[in-house]
Amino acid sequence: MRFKRFTAVFVACILACSLLAGCGGGASSAPAASTPAAGSTPSGGDAAPEQVTIQVATWDYSSNPSVSNAVAAFETAHPEIKVEVIDIPSADYNTKLSVMLNGGDGLDAFFIKDASSTFDLYTKGQLLDLTDYIAADNIDMAGYNGTDTPFNIEGRQYGMPVRTDYYVLYYNKDIFDAAKVDYPSNDMTWDEFEELAIQLTGDGKYGAHFHTWQACVENWGVQDGKNTIMDYETGYDFFKPYYDMAVRLQDAGAIQDFGELQSGNIHYSGAFASGNVAMMPMGTWYIATIAESMKKGEANLSAWGVATLPHPADVPAGYTVGATTPLVINPSSAKQDAAWEFVKFMSSVDSAMEYAKVGAIPGRLNDEILAQIAALDGMPEGLAEALKVTNIVPDRPIVADVTEVNDMLGQEHSLIMLGELSVDEGLAEMAERAGEILGK
């Protein structure tokens, strides 16, 4: 997956992000707590409410304990609400979700898998405005560390962050130890990263590894939160320092040649696990993978670590880039109050603890949650501190035409890294083509 543009934790599962918005649809003015239809089961002289069932769509549910554990915890806390999970294979999710929403088959809430589908859902009026619910229940949005912002459209909130992933720096302790060099700190600039990568290159070792995704260069350009991949009017000058760095590192042999990675279809997990890469910026979803490889003895290294993502010199430590999986409500649902109780719980600290138990990084983070993830078997020393970020910048904004622009940037990225275009030529083409896509 790519992180094209992500305090958080870590993960074992990927990232999907998307947004929502209902054209004109919105929560009723003062939403109340879920009040299921009343029943008349006597208990101690009092009538117990009849259980209401809500339908929730997600993907690969049977193999995703983070979601299933959180759903079970919700049903324990809310016995008056039963969750019927519609489990759709990942590859078919977006298509089948669209059919369900367009067909009006009673779906109450759903997870958004891909950011590219969010704006379409919004323009089709298939996302319920949650702003009034949030205000009525006094939800603290600051606890999401910015992961909620992509789902705020024109000042209204259409989705709540449930899971997130963001970029960190993985490093091979064996290479640092052999070179007698200090491990990366949680406050390292990209200039310092480049210098360190050059220093650790040699004897068959690469100082760093940049995967072939454009996100592994362009994300650093949006890390400060000042620009997005849609800001073509700047000539994409905010990408330039990082493309210059990537080209210098490639020319110096400090990172593997882009063409070799592309033609060999070399995956970043194999590159790092091979033991000849000192540092690799990559998403938190890789933590569980490398931990499992280490436990099985499949990785060709004896010790690894995680540091906070390096940052631009004029940006504080703790800024990173990521993507978030939101949970939203179908505005056509007849059980919106019950669906809100579910959405509220799944984006709460209680649900976050369930995610943390299996190493997945929830949208809402705190020190206790980070400590729980860091205490899992096989986690490296210092992980909780490395994951304690202060701001997660979305890799892509939720706007019209973002998918087409992003795809174009990937094409130009390849041309730059293959040496077919200079950095300046590539950025100029990016700006020109983005302007054409956006009709300006």
Structure description:
This protein is of the alpha/beta class. Helix content is 36%, strand content 16%. The chain has helices at residues 65-77, 93-103, 118-123, 131-136, 173-179, 190-199, 215-221, 240-251, 258-263, 268-273, 286-295, 336-346, 349-357, 367-374, 383-387, 402-417, 423-437, and strands at residues 38-43, 46-49, 52-59, 81-88, 109-111, 152-153, 156-157, 160-172, 279-283, 304-308, 319-329, 391-394. The strands form 3 sheets. Strands 3, 4, 5, 8, 9, 10, 11 and 12 form an 8-stranded mixed sheet that branches. It has a two-stranded antiparallel ribbon with strand order 1-2. Strand 6 and strand 7 (156-157) form a beta hairpin. Helix 1 packs antiparallel against helix 13 and helix 7 crosses helix 8. The longest helix is centred in the C-terminal third of the chain and has 16 residues, at 402-417. It is globular and about 70 Å long.
